[in-house]
């Protein structure tokens, strides 16, 4: 093999070696950027999970409060139903008394 051919092959291998070195550097840089991005995503995920825990706690508290309000509304509704019955009875008594008063007044006239 001639010296020129050997030099040409060595130059070619040297160029390939530089290209591979640049490629490796580029890949390492991209991997580093990817890792940084993944770390940011991971941190944001942790924040979102913490926010979700807080939201779940608040929802649980709201459910408890809504349950209490429902119970109170049922109790008030029951009381109003009983009160309505008493008011209707009182109205009937008033009408009866008014009728009696009219009857007595008509007898006296």
Features of the shown structure:
mainly alpha; about 110 residues; about 0% strand; 1 helix
Helical fraction: over 70%
Portion of residues in beta strands equals under 5%
- Helix count equals 1
Rg calculated over all Cα atoms:
46 Å
- Helix vs. strand class: mainly alpha
Number of strands: 0
How many angstroms does the end-to-end distance come to? Answer: 151 Å
The helix/strand order is: H
- Count the domains: 1
The mean pLDDT is 94
Instruction: Sketch the major β-sheet.
Output: none
Low-confidence stretches at least 5 residues in length (pLDDT < 50)?
none
Shape field: rod-shaped
Can you tell me about this structure?
The protein is mainly alpha-helical. The protein has one domain. Helix content is 97%, strand content 0%. It is built from one helix and no strands. It has one helix at residues 3-108. It is rod-shaped and about 150 Å long. The N and C termini lie far apart (151 Å). The model has no long low-confidence stretch (mean pLDDT 94).
Topology at a glance:
Layout: H1 3-108
Summarize the structure.
The protein has 109 residues and is mostly helical.
């Amino acid at each position: 093999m001639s010296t020129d051919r050997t030099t040409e092959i060595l130059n070619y291998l040297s160029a390939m070696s530089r290209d591979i070195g640049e490629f490796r550097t580029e890949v390492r840089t991209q991997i580093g950027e990817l890792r940084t991005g993944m770390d940011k995503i991971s941190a944001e995920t942790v924040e979102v999970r913490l926010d979700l825990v807080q939201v779940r706690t608040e929802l649980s508290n709201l459910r408890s409060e809504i349950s209490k309000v429902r119970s109170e509304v049922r109790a008030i509704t029951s009381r109003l139903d009983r009160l309505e019955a008493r008011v209707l009875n009182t109205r009937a008594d008033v009408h009866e008394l008014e009728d009696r008063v009219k009857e007595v007044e008509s007898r006296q006239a």
